[in-house]
Design goal:
- There is one protein chain.
- The protein has helices at about 50-60, 205-215, 285-290; strands at about 20-25, 25-30, 70-75, 75-80, 85-90, 95-100, 100-105, 110, 115-120, 125-130, 165, 190-195, 215-220, 225-230, 245, 250-255, 260-265, 270, 275-280, 295-300.
- It is mainly β.
- It has 2 domains: about 20-165, Jelly Rolls (Sandwich); about 190-305, Cyclophilin, CATH 2.40.100.
- The strands form 4 sheets. It has a 7-stranded mixed β-barrel with strand order 12-19-16-17-14-13-20. Strands 7-6-9-4-1-11 form a 6-stranded antiparallel beta sheet, with no helix packed on it.
- A hairpin with a 2-residue loop joins β6 (about 95-100) and β7.
- The chain is elongated and about 60 Å long.
């Protein structure tokens, strides 16, 4: 792909500074903590799919934890920094090259003005986060800079030639950290804890047992809205539909096909399919890093663990 030299800003970015996207990868978006509190208006939460990795990236450069950063799906991006910046990359581990020098994941480093950062494809996991000290100052929509791929709110997904302005969402000097000890995403079978219900009575007892004992495979149709799974069919006792009711990230819906869907960050606010179980909030980052072809096993957990 030819490298872009466009000065076209993203939503008013200053042409003299910011971060230019030369290569965007399969899906790159800007994400922060999302838009809580707007469900009554039909607006979902959105935000970083792997909030734990995004928060770590911001901490490593001394940002406010809710500062906007990049979320890259399957990496494969190139960025040019039009101003010097402190940077950290977390999440799915990728080869990093600053000019001709390799850099480490989960470790802050400085890119000079005019410097180039190349991010390879991850060896494990799915989503990689790039935080820049000060955060990315794209315009807010309903108090958030997050891209919501379901509703279309927020900035458009990244494209070559985009220039992202750098903001001031930091406090104090950067932390004196060399590297954060973080385990990489698992390569093999994933184990995820769930709380049964609230609509388990709409499915057969065998359906819940199957969910908690079988293995399911992540399909290529999965995205930020939800993880779609292949595996044993989960049978329902009722085939009419519920009135639409509120949904949360981690809800495991059972559509008429019996193939479960686990909601992620950009899930719809309401839904009419029964929810057989809900993934613990602590385990949502595991699902956010699940790659197509990986297998997932669900285990029941006490509601107190959420």
């Amino acid at each position: 792909m030819p490298e872009s030299t466009s000065d076209s800003p993203v939503a008013g970015a200053p042409p003299a500074g910011g971060v230019e996207v030369v290569r965007a990868g399969p899906l790159g978006t800007v994400q922060d903590r999302g838009r809580p509190g707007f469900a009554a208006l039909g607006v979902g939460h959105s935000g970083a799919a792997d909030a734990r990795s995004a928060t770590l990236a911001n901490r490593l450069v001394g940002n406010d934890e809710g500062a906007a950063c990049l979320e890259l799906t399957m990496g494969s991006a190139t960025l040019v920094f039009r101003e010097a910046a402190r940077v950290a990359v977390t999440g799915a581990p990728c080869d990093l090259a600053r000019e001709d020098r390799g850099e480490a994941m989960n470790a802050p480093f400085t890119v000079r003005a005019g410097g180039r950062l190349t991010i390879g494809a991850p060896a494990a996991g799915l989503r990689t986060y790039v935080a820049v000290r000060g955060g990315l100052a794209v315009p807010e929509t309903l108090g958030s800079r997050s891209t919501d791929v379901l509703s279309g709110l927020g900035p458009a997904p990244l494209s070559p030639g985009d220039v992202l302005p750098i903001g001031t969402d930091h406090s104090g000097p950067p932390p004196a950290v060399d590297v954060a000890p973080v385990n990489p995403p698992a390569i093999g079978d994933l184990r995820v804890r769930v709380v049964p219900g609230p609509r388990a009575d709409w499915c057969t007892p065998e359906a819940l047992e199957t969910l908690l004992t079988a293995r399911f495979t992540v399909t290529a149709e999965s995205n930020r809205v939800g993880v779609r799974l292949e595996g044993p069919r989960l049978a329902r006792t009722r085939h009419d539909e519920l009135p639409s009711e509120g949904m949360v990230a981690g809800a495991i819906q059972v559509p008429p096909s019996g193939r479960p869907v686990v909601f992620l960050a950009d899930h719809p606010v309401t839904g009419g399919y029964p929810v057989l179980a809900v993934v613990l909030t602590k385990d949502l980052p595991i699902l956010a890093q699940a790659r197509p072809g990986q297998t997932i096993s669900f285990r029941a957990q006490s509601p107190a663990a959420r």
